[in-house]
């Protein structure tokens, strides 16, 4: 026995479909204008010698860039202008087989006080496909930060891009479009 859909049943099925139409997914004129302005800004910055690195946003709002140290696999680094220094975790230092040395200093950050600060020698810091010379990176235990990320359902980070690196590379963050512009000096 063959069953055919009746026209009235077909109309009911179509009406039951979500009201998200293709037209709803088209960008608004304002969004198109903003995208064009962002593209023009990006082109102008690249003409001025800036490189660009993509950023992703965590649910917490933190911006994350992929970084490679000494040619490593990509690692997650939070961009944190409130951090005075660029750093990696002790676990990252061990995984990269870096030799850490105690600096004799301590650091305090959000949720952590009296954190031991070590340093490690590195040969390159790669971001946005650009390998940049960098001789030393700090090694600080930020497990208290990663614990909060994990509780929030996020992946832990391997390091932080701090204001020292941002200043040295004249970083401009395009938060709306998820990208970081920097001078590869």
From TrEMBL:
Q: Does the keyword 4Fe-4S apply?
A: no
The record's section on InterPro entries has: Peptidase_aspartic_dom_sf (IPR021109), Retropepsin-like_bacterial (IPR034122)
Keyword Cytoplasm listed? The answer is no
Q: Which GO terms describe its biological process?
A: proteolysis
Provide the GO MF annotations for this entry.
peptidase activity
* Superkingdom as given in the UniProt entry: Bacteria
Q: Which residues form the signal peptide?
A: 1-23
Annotated protein name in UniProt = Aspartyl protease
Listed A to Z, the keywords are: Hydrolase, Protease, Signal
Q: Name one Pfam family in it.
A: Asp_protease_2
């Amino acid at each position: 026995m063959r069953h055919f859909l009746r026209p009235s049943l077909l109309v009911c099925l179509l009406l039951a479909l979500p009201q998200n139409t293709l037209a709803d997914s088209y960008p608004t004129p304002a969004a198109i204008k903003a995208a064009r302005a962002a593209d023009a800004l990006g082109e102008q910055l690249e003409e001025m010698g800036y490189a660009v690195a993509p950023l992703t946003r965590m649910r917490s709002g933190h911006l994350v860039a992929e970084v490679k140290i000494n040619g490593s696999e990509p690692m997650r680094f939070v961009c944190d202008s409130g951090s005075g220094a660029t750093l990696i975790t002790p676990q990252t230092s061990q995984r990269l087989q870096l030799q850490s040395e105690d600096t004799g200093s301590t650091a305090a950050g959000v949720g952590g006080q009296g954190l031991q600060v070590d340093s490690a020698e590195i040969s390159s810091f790669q971001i946005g496909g650009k390998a940049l010379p960098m001789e030393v990176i700090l090694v600080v235990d930020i497990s208290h930060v990663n614990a909060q990320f994990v509780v929030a359902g996020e992946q832990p980070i391997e390091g932080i891009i701090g204001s020292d690196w941002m200043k040295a590379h004249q970083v401009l963050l395009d938060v709306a479009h998820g990208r970081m512009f920097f001078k590869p000096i």
